[in-house]
Amino acid sequence: MTAMASPTLPVLTSVSNPRVRAAIALRERRQRDLAGLTLIDGAREVRRALDAGVVVVEAFVCEPLLAGPDARVALDRLREDATSIRTVSEAVFAKLAFGERAEGLLAVVRIPSTDLADFALPDDPLVVVIEGVEKPGNVGAVLRSADGAGADAVVAASPRTDLFNPNAIRASAGTMFTVPVGAAPSDEVLAWLRDGGLRIVAARVGAGRPYTEADLTGRLAIVLGAEADGLTEVWTADGIEAINLPMHGVADSLNVSISAAILLYEARRQRGLPLPARKE
Questions:
Q1: CA distance from start to end of the chain
Q2: DSSP per residue over 183-242, as a string?
Q3: pLDDT grade for 6, boundaries at 50, 70 and 90
Q4: Judging by beta carbons within 10 Å of its beta carbon (0-12, 13-18, 19+), is residue 279 exposed, middle or buried?
Q5: pTM score over 0.90
Q6: What is d(CA 84, CA 86) in angstroms, rounded to the nearest whole number?
Q7: Whole-angstrom distance, CA of residue 214 vs CA of residue 220
């Protein structure tokens, strides 16, 4: 049976409604930064945010589009938490939603902290650092790889997009909320890694040893840069090992999310550890 919003609530049919306008405004980074809020579009994504304890301010539901087990569970959870749920028409939801996969559920949430001081790493952490990555889709895809390989954190060094960009959340399939994420200027990230006693390997085109010959065990941070610019000079400091993914065609580099996936799974293989169980 498809989950339904409360029948006593009026259906919002105009994008001029103040609550709808405020939510639409969160599509812009400036407004997200000012409000400390972002949008989560999609039943699976909302459910994973709820599982992670993210604070939901309000939700928008479009009944004709709402279906599937994730939608039912997420909507029930929102009701249990006494979240303000607003029913909207398909036309209004189209203005709120992202991409083509409209699932009839969108939440406005408080942006979680990305402060590195809030991190608690395990004994032998595997951390991914992405420097200067601009496209939200790439950020989200790196999160999916990190989640799949059981990484302990993803840190954006000198990011060019906000980590909780709605498109990044969508591209991550909600794994933005299953892996701790942080952000800071590159020099601060480097200092944080060193203070935590992590070895650092930096992926550079044609530099250092092939990744298959590198030691990716122990307390480790894997650092990757954006495809266009690569890594800055911050990551040439003493004690940082350069590694490369050999390229055998005409292209000189891989997409950053693909590079992350290859290196993370190689690190997992070298560690000889089973992947940790993830809650669904």
A1: 21
A2: EE-HHHHHHHHHHTT-EEEEE-TT-SEEGGGS---SSEEEEEEBTTTB--GGGGSTTEEE
A3: very low
A4: exposed
A5: no
A6: 7
A7: 12
- Cα Rg of the chain (Å, integer): 20
Contact 150, 124 (CB under 8 A): no
Helices and strands (H, E) in the chain, number of each type: 9, 12
The answer to whether residues 96 and 39 touch, using CB atoms and an 8 Å cutoff, is yes
Please report, rounded to a whole number, the percentage of residues in the chain having pLDDT higher than 90.
76
Say whether 173 sits in a helix, a strand or coil.
Answer: coil
Looking at the predicted structure, is the pLDDT value of residue 273 above 90? no
Q: Which H or E run includes 138?
A: helix 136-149
Could you say which DSSP state residue 275 is in?
A: P
Q: What share of the chain is helix, strand, coil (3-state, %, to 5)?
A: 40, 20, 40
What gap in Å lies between CA 174 and CA 229, rounded to an integer?
A: 28
Instruction: For residue range 215-269, list pLDDT tens digits in order.
Output: 999 999 999 998 777 899 999 999 999 999 887 876 767 789 999 999 999 999 9
- Give the whole-angstrom CA distance, residue 71 versus residue 61: 10
Strand partners, 203: 243
